[in-house]
Amino acid sequence: MLRTNSPPPSPLPTFAAGQEAVFIERDFDRDGAADRIVVRGEGAEIQSRKADTKAWAKADFQLPDGVVPGEALRFLDLNGDGFDDVLFSAADRFAIHLWSTRVAPHLGWGKGWSQTVRAGKRRTRAGRTASARRRGSPDRGRRPGGETRWSRAALRLEATDRL
């Protein structure tokens, strides 16, 4: 069973030019320095805190293409390597990206979530692209105390925008 102690992210507000908000803060790359996802009107950026200056700067890894912060994004260790992987499940698309603990540019593995397990557009059983319908509740899978438990069945990426 997969577990994460982070609460589900809240919906993102709309930002005017120059406004920003921190979506989530944690040490994604396990280097001892805090990282955060900052959301602005023009998109999202992962920043790392520099140890010497304590200033935030753009990190040397970013979210995978097509993955955006919001209710559809979860970080959890899917393969037991100690690094948070990306589980993205929106109404129209889905993706699973593993953190690359081994950087191998000749294999396409860069720092960050460069190993795509599976990604694509949602389809209905009839083969059409899935509509933005919702099934289940936003707290499905949540346990008291903020712990979320994921079973193998919860990781089946079906035509639902929430897990």
Folded structure, characterized:
- The protein has 163 residues and is mostly beta strands.
- The protein contains no helices and ten strands.
- It has strands at residues 2-4, 20-26, 35-40, 43-49, 56-58, 73-76, 85-89, 93-100, 112-121, 148-150.
- A four-stranded antiparallel sheet has the order 2-3-4-5, with no helix packed on it.
- A hairpin with a 6-residue loop joins β4 (43-49) and β5 (56-58).
- The chain is globular.
- The model is unreliable at 1-5, 7-12 and 131-163 (pLDDT under 50).
Key features of this structure:
mainly beta
**% residues in beta strands:** 25-35%
Largest sheet: spatial strand order:
2-3-4-5
Number of strands: 10
Shape: globular
- Give the rounded overall mean pLDDT: 75
The residue fraction in helices comes out at under 10%
Q: What is the number of helical segments per DSSP (H or I, 4+ residues)?
A: 0
Structural class: mainly beta
State the end-to-end CA separation. 15 Å
Which sequence of SSEs, written as H and E, runs from N to C? EEEEEEEEEE
**Integer-rounded radius of gyration:** 16 Å
Which spans of ≥5 residues are poorly predicted at pLDDT below 50?
1-5, 7-12, 131-163
| Biggest sheet record | 4 strands, antiparallel
